[in-house]
Amino acid sequence: MHRTDPACAAHPIEAFARSRSSIRGGLEISALALLVSLLVGCRPPALETRIAALEVAADRQAVIQLINQYAYGLDRGDQDALRSIFLPEAVAEYVGVDTPLDVRLEGIEAILAWLRETDHGRSAPGHYMATHVVEVEGDHARMVAYQHNRDVSGAGLYTIDARRTPEGWRIARLHLDQRSLAMHTPDRAPATNGKDERQPAQ
Predict the structure, then answer these.
(1) Engineering a disulfide at 128: which of 80, 100, 148, 170 sits with its beta carbon 3.0 to 4.6 angstroms away?
(2) CA–CA separation, 186 vs 111, rounded Å?
(3) pLDDT digits (tens, 9 = 90+) for 6-58
(4) What is the per-residue DSSP string for 98-163?
């Protein structure tokens, strides 16, 4: 990331522009001074802060795009789309909190093979991702996101560790904790007098 040279605070062109800010054309001179400062490698501290914030925001969006493309690849059975978002040495873990799901896959080929085996085809989108929270630290990022799997009436929490590469952000580790919604649907008694009454807890 570009760092502000302390000497920029006293750049002669900027100082001249400030001295002329009260006369006609001062704004144009100030704009010219800013442009020259950027060209010679100087950035005002406020601009530096804003650029840094925009860079982090762009990184967060790029990491969120990984889980969106993952869901798209799952629903369409698009192995190329899935391959493009993982590192070759990526690890994927799928754990069922209350369902018989417990698998750890090492390497992109193992991940893709397992996804092919468990893909039974679908006529409509089945994976929905939401509530993304992303923390970026340098070239590493961690994201947590909720998912709803319509095919198995399940909900889950994805945790993804991503790494920046020359080609962009890629998934290094993917972990899913999935829970069956059907097993947590409250039992209901037949409606009485037009009201839906829950059975008392056992």
Answers:
(1) 148
(2) 35
(3) 445 445 445 444 444 444 455 565 566 656 666 656 667 788 889 889 999 99
(4) SSS-EEEEESHHHHHHHHHHT----SS--EEEEEEEEEEETTEEEEEEEEEEGGGTEEEEEEEEEE
The Cα–Cα gap between 149 and 115 comes to 15
Burial (0-12, 13-18, 19+ Cβ within 10 Å), 107: middle
Phi, psi (deg, nearest 5) at residue 190 = -55, 145
Per-residue pLDDT reduced to its tens digit, 63-77:
999 999 999 998 888
- Kind and range of the H or E element at 62? helix 45-76
Residue 193 to residue 161: CA distance in whole angstroms: 53
Q: How many CB atoms lie within 10 A of CB 30?
A: 17
**DSSP code, position 198:** B
What is the spatial distance between Cα 201 and Cα 54, in angstroms, rounded to a whole number?
Answer: 51
